[in-house]
Amino acid sequence: MVACSSNAAVTTPQSTVVVETLTTTPTYATEVQPLFIQHCVSCHSGIAPGGGYRMESYEQVMTSGANTPNVVAGDLNSNLLRMLRGETISAGGQMPPDALLSPQEIAIIVRWVETGAQP
Ligand code: HEC
Q1: Contacts 24+ apart (CB under 8 A), 31-34
Q2: What are the tens digits of pLDDT across the range 82-98?
Q3: Ligand 1 atom 17: the closest Cα is on which residue?
């Protein structure tokens, strides 16, 4: 007898971004913070950060925002990743709003969360 469970409920993300698979363990300090500074901090700092979400430090990335937590270590459906992949969710639309990061940049951030969102 073969137990055959149906996975019919699995939904396919609308994103067309192909994210490559990395085998490294990126850390916030070395690989991720520079990407956030380059692409996110301009809107996610100051008096009125987007969604109340501040991205200037590890602590802020992990704990701030109207929809916190936006990053959950190990959770590939974290808000931040879904928005990076171009999804629109209750926390907002794709991030950055004007153009997605490159597949290589997204892969680094996805891998960072997957491997435990190390500081
Ligand atoms: C041009 C400004 C802008 C840039 C650049 C930007 N964001 Fe946003 N972000 C917003 C705004 C505004 C919101 C509030 C929700 C909305 O209006 O869509 C938001 C909301 C969010 C939220 C949800 C916060 C919460 O708790 O509700 C996350 C997560 C997020 N952004 C991640 C990012 C990441 C990651 C980047 C860089 C890759 C980025 N954003 C770049 C403007 C920006």
Answers
A1: 31/108, 31/112, 32/108, 32/109, 32/112, 33/58
A2: 999 999 999 999 999 99
A3: 92
